[in-house]
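Researcher: Next entry: HTH tetR-type domain-containing protein (Sphingopyxis macrogoltabida).
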Amino acid sequence: MDKDSGLTIKAARREERSASAEALLNATAQLLSEATTIDVSLNEISQRASVNSAMIKYYFGNKEGLLLAVLERDAETAMTALKALSEMDIPAQKKLKIHINGIINAYYRSPYINRLIHYMVESGSPAASKRVAQIFIEPMIEVYRDIVAQGVREGVLKDVDPGLLYYCLVGAADHIFHAGYSVPSTLGVAKLDDGIKQKYAEMVCDIYLRGLAP
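Model: Predicted structure:
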């Protein structure tokens, strides 16, 4: 076998390994979205991904490593968008409205996110808990601090604590999806759809933008 053929085979194997890891991440996200807890077994994940369960240890070390990798992938997308929003040359109120819509859309697509964050912070190893804070919580509070400061300068927002704002917005954005089991009783429909999600986003925006006005 010549050198070029050997390099091609190695590249193909790397690509195959990468595809297997991505399949495991996708399967985990799908199962977490379907469940009401994070109690998803490694066997379920490997079956959904059509990947040998031994590969979870190979790629991620253990279940905690796999769950952390799912959150890191979600955080990369969400925090990049949030940072870009923070740097946009638009009014603070508009930034806040875009963000509220964005976070509700994120939880609609991936309803497990906040549940998994809580689990990793409360029950994960100290290293995992610290990592989750670094990739999700701290960046969000930093952006909230910037938006609030801009809004105060513009005279359109109260000078509120960014940490408390985090609890308010994340709690409001997450609960309707976290408590999806109650939707038939509260809303009279079998499950949430895009129309309900959008109406909810508009209501949350209206409540918070009015409430944060000086």
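Model: Note for the record: The chain has two domains: 1-61, 63-211.
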